[in-house]
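Students often ask why we bother predicting the structure of a whole assembly rather than each chain alone. The short answer is interfaces. A chain on its own may look different once its partners are present, and contacts between molecules only exist in the joint model. In this exercise we take two input lines together and write out one structure for the complete complex. Read the inputs first and try to guess which parts will touch.
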Amino acid sequence: MSRPGDAQRGSGRAVAGARSTGAGFGRVLVTVYGVLAFAALGRSSYELATKFTEAPVAYSLSALAALVYVVATVALALGAAPVWRRVAWAAVGVEAVGVLAVGSASLVSRDVFGESTVWSLYGQGYGYVPLVLPFVGLWWLWRTRGPAAHGPRGSDPADGSEETTA
Amino acid sequence: MLLPLLILLIALCVALGGWAAWFVVKDRAVILNQLWGGAVVEGVLIAQAITAAIRGATGGGPSDPLLFWGYMATALVILPVAAAWAFAERTKWSSVVLLVAALTVAFLDFRLWQIWTGA
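Now the answer. The structure tokens for the assembled complex follow.
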């Protein structure tokens, strides 16, 4: 169960135990999230500004998706702090549920929401990136979690004072 | 939008992406020269924006200006942000970030062309 990096844990980092979600592979994850956030935000602003009344449900869903991507990007980038890590879990979780729910609904009835959204057909319009990304995000959050989340070793991650002298 | 600038920009993005991909294989972090490469791409992108603005002002602009300039704004922002974000990471993952950014800009430029020509 020992992973590279275990040795440096709790040695005076911002959060004892938990690794930053924005470093290493996480830097790529945040980049892809950022691009998707920009894409979704641009699309949503355009829809809201030009044709919101045509399909309010679909365009509201797109706006919600855009907002969640922005929150997920920021939270993953700042993931060294416990509060941002929790926000990231929530945002990425909402995405996973959203893309599966909206994707399945759009599969049953093509125009259930009146118009297509970022999450329609499991994000087909975006190369299925919206489908893959939340699960990669969940895996990454789980992988970089602190020792308190998986057993007796280590102290309370919110404390961390005992380990700094080790 | 001018076709030669489009071809030049996509070629430059592919070259920059290839350079970054080579660094991923070699397990190396982004170097300053690659950021200069990114600056060249950004320069061509700005040239595209200027020519598009001039064409638009003289009546030959895109059929959907809002959509076009939305995409243009996104394309202009990506490389500077990605470069800063990548350069702070001193592992091969920074090279992956640059690769993703270069491919994204190439794709966005292709979309810009589609919107411009009304395809």
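Check your guess against this: Residues 20-145 of chain A form one domain.
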